[in-house]
Specification:
This protein is 34% helix and 13% strand. It is of the alpha+beta class. The protein has two domains: 201 residues, Transferase(Phosphotransferase) domain 1 (Transferase(Phosphotransferase), domain 1), CATH 1.10.510; 91 residues, 2-Layer Sandwich (Phosphorylase Kinase, domain 1). The longest helix is centred in the first third of the chain and has 24 residues. The radius of gyration is 21 Å and the shape is globular. The chain starts with 10 loop residues before the first helix and ends in a 44-residue tail after the last helix. The N terminus is likely disordered. Belongs to the protein kinase superfamily. Keywords: ATP-binding, Kinase, Nucleotide-binding, Serine/threonine-protein kinase, Transferase. Pfam families: Pkinase.
């Protein structure tokens, strides 16, 4: 077990963290292997659905003229996200506009095509999906459900940190979302509070699948947010879905502390801390949280939770998640600890304010050949 670098851990806790299984930290009557096998059957059906959609491209093709732009919800490296209203139905959506020139220049064409196909096939309560798509001379367009509760990042920044019960509620949903993605042979690779939206009921939706990839073996691509990168990504060892479980550990820590475990002004210093697995544990963390983190922020993937023989059961049966009713959570029957204030279907008060931007135009179709498959 990698040393966490914490001055707050007692020697007895360190000993417990080094054991593969310390029964003290696991519930006696938890999520049984039988339940998990039944759930795996459900996941396999969702995987079949994903493959079917992947092969058929069933998202609806539309056009920019059908949507009225109302307000900017966010900006990124490749474009802008607008709140839009569909003219014929009056329904509100989030429309992601990606600039073809930037995608081409940064060699992200394959990622953009992947994102469209992946979003088209997603079908799970805690992830967004693609409703419509189209392109024009300058932009690619993804039209997604509008999630008016805003980003988790905004709520976390406002509150400073979450109570552990709140962090458990969100982490459990992220865990189920990652389990679903992995069952579909997808590695997410971009988990962070900015990519987790909160719906009007207080439940989460993972968004931004630009780094998501179908993966049945290993890949070597360096991508993601520095503070959330797993050691194996930084060391170019080749990696699989284990990187998402590491990122879950970073998220659990950041939600509970208000800051990530590996932080520095220089990205290279962040990477150095990550590969050594060194982080400090705030004194207010419960022993259960410390224990689950010590097995999730584990540099040795052969010892990392989510990647062991019991898979997600190491999380589902851990005492830190003892209050979670996994079946009720899946169908939104657990009261949410934070319910965002949403006044109307088009309320954008939970999003940061952005000045309107002048959109680019072109008389000719830019990079027509490169994006012919979109």
């Amino acid at each position: 077990m990698t040393d966490s670098g914490s001055s707050h851990k007692s020697s007895s806790l360190s000993k417990m963290a080094n054991e593969d299984k310390n029964e003290y930290f696991f519930t006696a009557s938890g999520y049984s292997p039988t339940k998990q096998e039944a759930y795996n059957l459900y996941l396999r059906k969702l995987h079949e659905h994903f493959v079917q959609i992947w092969n058929s491209n069933s998202a609806k093709v539309s056009s920019p003229e059908e949507f009225l732009k109302i307000k900017i919800l966010g900006t990124g490296a490749f474009g802008i996200v607008y709140l839009v209203r569909k003219q014929d139905t009056g329904k509100y959506y989030a429309m992601k506009m990606l600039e073809k020139e930037k995608i081409f220049r940064l060699k992200q064409i394959e990622h953009s095509l992947y994102e469209k196909k992946i979003l088209s096939g997603l079908n799970f309560p805690f992830v967004v999906y693609l409703k419509y798509f189209f392109k024009d001379n300058v932009y690619l367009y993804y039209v997604l459900p509008f999630i008016p509760g805003g980003e988790m990042f905004t709520h976390l920044r406002k509150m400073g940190k979450f109570e552990e019960t709140t962090a458990q509620f969100y982490a459990a949903q992220v865990l189920l979302a990652l389990e679903y993605l992995h069952a579909c042979d997808l590695v997410y690779r971009d988990l962070k509070p900015e990519n987790i939206l909160i719906d009007p009921n207080g439940y989460i939706k993972l968004t931004d699948f630009g780094f998501c990839k179908i993966l049945k073996g290993r890949t070597w691509t360096l991508c993601g947010t520095p503070e959330y990168l797993a050691p194996e990504i930084i060391l170019s060892k080749g990696y699989g879905t284990s990187v998402d479980w590491w990122a879950l550990g970073v998220l659990m820590y950041e939600m509970s502390a208000g800051f990530p475990p590996f932080y520095a002004s220089d990205p290279m210093m962040i990477y150095e801390k990550i590969v050594h697995g060194k982080y400090k544990v705030p004194s207010h963390f419960s022993s259960e949280l410390k224990h689950v983190l010590s097995h999730t922020l584990e540099t040795d993937i052969s010892k990392r939770y989510g990647n062991l023989k019991d898979g997600v059961l190491d999380f589902k049966n851990h005492k830190w998640f003892k209050s979670i009713d996994w079946e009720k959570l899946l169908i939104n029957r657990v009261p949410a600890p934070i319910v965002p204030k949403v006044k109307s279907p088009c309320d954008t008060s939970n999003f940061d304010h952005y000045e309107d931007q002048k959109l680019k135009e072109s008389d000719k179709c830019l990079f027509e050949d490169e994006f012919s498959d979109f």
